[in-house]
Amino acid sequence: MKRVIISLFVFLLSSNAFAFIPEIKTIPLNDGEVIEARLCLPDNKVKTIVFCIAGTGPTTYLTKRTTFNYFDELANGFCEEGTAFFTYNRRGCKTGETPPLFVEVDSAKYAKYTPVQEAEDVETMISFLQKDQRFTECKILLYGISEGTIIAALVAERKVVHIDALLLHGYAHENMYDIILWQNKGHGVMIMANSVFDKDGDKAISKEEYETEEETVIRHKTYMFQNMPFDSLDIVKNGVIDIHDIEKMRMPFHGELIKRITNNDWLWIRSNYFNITPQWFKSHFKLEPNKTRLLRLHIPIHIFHGKEDANVPVEGVYDLQERFEVCNKTNLNIHLLENHNHDLNFQDWLIHKNGLKDLDYYLVWQKNYLFKAPL
């Protein structure tokens, strides 16, 4: 089982020649809806299936992009280590041809996508797999990414199907309401901005740091701040650009978003935020957060989190670790990566790997190969 954790990182070393055998599954869900999924198999008898639960929004079993399929790369890495890898189309979603997301969405079917419904769908898919005689004795590891870390924990706690371990990537610690509030206050923006501008480590951007002629700074000044003058961004007039300025700029949008959720204005949300429904928000806002739910689980839990994650704060990982220590629980394993973002720099690696000369992406992951805690 230890090699399953290793394989989460080994996939970054995979080549373009994929080492898996894909099987496309058509799976009926409990309410009669039918979805397509993909099981990628290694060239050996399967003892473990990694069942991937993707992050928020319309997703497919490929997660197709312009020059690569995200889940092809993950499947390749896991299958090279002898582990099967399973992904699925979210309700109402199928692979399309329109960039950047390459997803066709049937809005009527997609509207049923909520965290609890997704948990039920995952349970149905796992039961479907376990009816195949090849997999009746297989261990099932839920690999949750971002929102998927919430759904994976929910499935594990419900115990409708047996889960052997959780792999949580980009861990969501708080309730989704608090996460969205944190994001809309601008904390994620400041994490990204400080990684470029903040040279003295004070978590703020001075005028000197903002106006430096360094090439990276100039590029990100255009990308992140549209080349606005420093004084225009220093809204609270304390001599730096910091979280107080970003919050002043962004909180009116948060108020408008909450109003549109309350009024069930999916069209506005889809046009101004992301293609997720008011019901998705409301369902999430009622959920217990992972920070207490995970304490009730006794299976191995592995968390993989970048210290520069701008989607969910790394502080949640530290808090969870403290909670487990207070409760004298030993089934939590934390893997923090320096200078890594929400997807652990994976997309950066995918984009640059063919011409990559700098081996940082490889080496950072290689340091995490030999974990002590087996599943």
Helix content: 40-55%
Q: Look at the helices and sheets and give the structural class.
A: alpha/beta
Whole-number mean pLDDT = 89
Going across the major beta sheet, what is the strand order? 1-2-4-3-7-8-11-12
Largest sheet: 8 strands, mixed
Essential attributes:
375 residues, 16% strand, 8-stranded mixed sheet, 17 helices, disordered C terminus, alpha/beta, two-stranded antiparallel ribbon, globular
Commentary on this structure:
The protein has 375 residues and is of the alpha/beta class. The chain is 42% helix and 16% strand. It is built from 17 helices and twelve strands. It has helices at residues 2-10, 70-80, 107-110, 115-130, 147-158, 176-184, 187-197, 207-210, 215-225, 230-233, 243-262, 266-272, 278-286, 290-293, 315-326, 346-352, 360-366; strands at 21-28, 34-41, 48-53, 84-88, 93-95, 103-105, 139-145, 165-169, 205-206, 240-241, 301-306, 332-337. The strands form three sheets. Strands 1-2-4-3-7-8-11-12 form an eight-stranded mixed sheet, sandwiched between helices. The chain has a two-stranded antiparallel ribbon with strand order 5-6. Strands 9-10 form a two-stranded antiparallel ribbon. It is globular, with a radius of gyration of 21 Å. Mean pLDDT is 89; it is low at 9-15 and 354-375.
